[in-house]
């Protein structure tokens, strides 16, 4: 029976008993009141249904958020890389464009990049422009802040790029974009410190990784994967005078603290952006020939093994140039001690780290000879191809 039929029957019964012999005006008023009451009841029912559905959805969202929150650590520890055929490995390696890496990404970075200067602003614009031109649709942000230094207050700016800000987990590729304050050559005042390996080349490598994997990263974003990629270009890694806990790592110290107090995923009460980081891969001092890169941390040894495996596979397939043996760069049989770098503020907060830095340092480290001419182009391209395989495997592109 319909709702209309029930309502008509009730009114008919009332007219036959409760209203018999009453004044017609009074009866009419009663009928109006009954109709108004029924209309109110009918109007309230849809509202009640909407409220029930709303709070059910809120409860479901809250439960989902708590589920993601509880699973962040478990998912990070149980994460397994994708597996690729020989043909797929060749495809990823071929997508790395050495000419684009050198001419488009690196050359504009080979200037003085001291924090708070016009040079710093120029290279930040270059980084943002390159990432903004890609089809993957990066979310770009400049994290600016002022800090006291031995030279007075300085404004620093980290450049951040996230593929999918809403994804619960992140793989971070990072480097620093600033250059050290360095005395000019008294015999040649135009000769300035450009820090080719420290860290213009690592910045260019990360830009090339984003460009070479653009199509696959776009597809990953469209899949709304639980795991995404973030790129971080730190400012203020270098000390203004002597390296101390307070005169160094300005950008990474600030960002680690900021991420530690930023809730993630959205609506989470107990987890932060810092806890969303699966792995921080930091690149520094890369560009010279024959780098020896060792594993610094036991808890990320399995990911260092993936770099070793990628180098071996690419070597066996003849996809690396000027590469005499299958394991030339990444070695587990050496350890020369820890290195202070931008990973430290994250490491101290429990973030897993891969620190890709040659030890011993290049002979031109912190000298005016750290220039493009001292960089070994085949090595830079080889390392970028190895990292392309690593990123593709980690994200299952």
From TrEMBL:
MF terms per GO, please? glutaminyl-peptide cyclotransferase activity; zinc ion binding
> Does the record's keyword annotation contain Disulfide bond?
yes
Pfam families in the record: Peptidase_M28
Q: Which InterPro entries match?
A: M28_QC, Peptidase_M28, QC/QCL
EC numbers: 2.3.2.5
What is the catalytic activity of this protein?
N-terminal L-glutaminyl-[peptide] = N-terminal 5-oxo-L-prolyl-[peptide] + NH4(+)
What's the superkingdom here?
Eukaryota
Where found, per UniProt? Secreted
Q: List keywords of the entry alphabetically.
A: Acyltransferase, Disulfide bond, Membrane, Metal-binding, Secreted, Transferase, Transmembrane, Transmembrane helix, Zinc
- Chain segments annotated as transmembrane: 36-57
The UniProt record lists the Peptidase M28 domain at 158-388
Alphabetized Gene3D superfamilies for the sequence: Zn peptidases
Give a Gene Ontology cellular component term annotated to this protein.
extracellular region
What broad class of enzyme is this?
A: transferase
> Mostly located where?
secreted
Q: Which PANTHER family is this protein grouped with?
A: GLUTAMINYL-PEPTIDE CYCLOTRANSFERASE (PTHR12283), GLUTAMINYL-PEPTIDE CYCLOTRANSFERASE-LIKE PROTEIN (PTHR12283:SF3)
The UniProt family comment states: Belongs to the glutaminyl-peptide cyclotransferase family.
Q: What is this protein identified as? A: Glutaminyl-peptide cyclotransferase
State the species of origin: Phoxinus phoxinus
């Amino acid at each position: 029976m319909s709702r209309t039929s029930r309502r008509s029957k009730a009114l008919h019964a009332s007219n036959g008993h409760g209203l018999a012999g009453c004044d017609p005006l009074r009866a009419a008023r009663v009928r109006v009141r009954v109709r108004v009451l029924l209309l109110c009841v009918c109007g309230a029912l849809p509202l009640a249904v909407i409220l029930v559905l709303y709070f059910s959805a809120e409860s479901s969202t809250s439960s989902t958020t708590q589920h993601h929150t509880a699973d962040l650590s478990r998912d990070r520890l149980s994460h397994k890389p994708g597996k690729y055929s020989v043909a797929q490995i060749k495809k990823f390696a071929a997508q790395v464009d050495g000419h684009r890496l050198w001419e488009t990404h690196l050359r504009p970075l080979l200037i003085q990049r001291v924090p708070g200067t016009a040079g710093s602003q120029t290279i930040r614009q270059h980084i943002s422009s390159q990432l903004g031109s890609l089809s993957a649709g990066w979310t770009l942000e400049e994290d600016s802040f002022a800090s006291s230094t031995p030279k007075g207050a300085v404004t620093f700016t980290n450049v951040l790029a996230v593929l999918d800000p809403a994804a619960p987990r992140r793989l971070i590729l990072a480097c620093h974009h600033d250059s050290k304050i360095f005395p000019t050559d008294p015999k040649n005042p135009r000769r300035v410190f450009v820090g080719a390996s420290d860290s213009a080349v690592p910045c260019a490598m990360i830009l090339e990784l984003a460009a070479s994997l653009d199509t696959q990263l776009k597809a990953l974003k469209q899949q709304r994967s639980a795991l995404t990629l973030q790129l971080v270009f730190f400012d203020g890694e270098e000390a203004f005078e002597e390296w101390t806990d307070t005169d160094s790592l300005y950008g990474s110290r600030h960002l680690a603290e900021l991420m530690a107090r930023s809730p993630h995923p959205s609506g989470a009460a107990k987890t932060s952006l810092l806890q969303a980081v699966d792995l921080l891969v930091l690149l520094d001092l890369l560009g010279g020939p024959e780098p020896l890169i060792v594993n610094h941390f036991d808890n990320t040894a399995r990911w260092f093994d993936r770099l070793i495996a990628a180098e071996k596979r690419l070597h066996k397939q003849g996809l690396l140039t000027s590469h005499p043996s299958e394991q030339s760069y990444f070695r587990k049989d050496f350890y020369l001690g820890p290195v202070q770098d931008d990973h430290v503020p994250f490491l101290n907060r429990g973030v897993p780290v891969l620190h890709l830095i040659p030890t011993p340092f290049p002979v031109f480290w912190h000298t005016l000879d750290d220039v493009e001419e001292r960089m070994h182009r085949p090595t830079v391209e080889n390392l970028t191809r190895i990292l392309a395989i690593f990123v593709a495997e980690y994200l299952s592109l």
